[in-house]
Amino acid sequence: MARILIVGGGYIGMYAARRLERRLDATKHQLLLVNPENFMLYQPFLPEVASGLIDPRAVVVPLRSVLRRTELVVGEVEAIDLSAQHASVRLAGGDPRDLGYDVLVLGAGSWSRTLAIPGLAEHGVGFKDLAEAIWLRNRVLSQLDRAAELADADARRAALTFVFVGAGFAGIEALGELEDLARTATATIPTLQRADQRWVMVEAAARILPELEPDLAMYAGDRLRERDIEIRTSTRLERIEDGVVYLSDGEAMPAETLVWTAGVRASPLAADSGFPVDERGRVRVDPALRVVGIDGVWAAGDVAAVPDEHAGQGTSPPTAQHALRQARVLADNVVASLEGGRLRRFRYENKGMLCSLGHYRGVANPLGIRVKGFPAWFLHRTYHLLYMPSFARKARIALDWTIALLFPRDLAQLGSLEHPRDAFRRAAGGDR
What we know:
By secondary structure, the chain is α/β, with parallel strands linked by helices.
């Protein structure tokens, strides 16, 4: 029996496993999938999780519920021995486990791409996983509550300054949704006004949203500025020191919240395990998604440099729509390689990009057609709802949106959940 080991339970891992389950004989092939969590996260909805419009549970898909024949190992692959054909896994409880394989599918995804900026690791937060989105929601609401009680003007100003670095899709959508949340919450706090807050987007490039046409990016910038959001292009973050954010344009602003959304980098697992990688640490694969020079090993998604004749840089961009289609081609080619079939090349032409700005506004260019405002916002929601795995999750998200239209936004701040044992420790310690 051939053992197929899939590393990563994101777009590549989950969708490839589902397709392999349908196409391979269960009596001849064993499927194993290793992932740090027991769920797949649909990242395009993270901004709406952060703003409270969608319940966090609605954007995660339990892997065991959608993968009927695949054995799920909850843990992290720490190393892959290509010559011995086995992976070293650290299980969720900390115990080690070695997994051998006959065929390897690498879909380890990406990490936040950070720079060696003084103070960033200590004071910044990313926006790539569910925990970060929930933390940021709690952070914004707790900062508003805290500022409402501060008498010192400087301390109040620092508490209410929110700096985002990186004006791609993730940064713009996160900023737009969180500012919307803060605006709604501020209306319920008599001692606060929107003018007390400062929301700043810092971008090293000459304009925001470089993936879109200049007129769409300009429209997005204008809509954000109308909401008193500052946009600093051609500006870099230099350091964070003593609660002050220093920018390359010379400004130093006291700020207690800094969100880093300046891109992603491939998981270092491949480079650390001796895979052939490019200058950005991505696995080199051929058009059929086989790892170059290694038999029986496949890779796709953010961790791989997938040849793409339609992309400006020659490789597929790290987007969900590319990853979904790569997973299908990869699974089909794995089946073909095992059963003596013909491999096919990955070919996909981007059908357009969509970006939500919050506040019922967005920008999009589906099939080259420029769309702005409410239609683009609605298109963004509809597209991602259609691609959300499982009907149950689609229904829950649609229900959350309906509730948000009919009832006031939930403004409960649940930051205390990050320290669930504090109350018990105080009680056990005899505090009165």
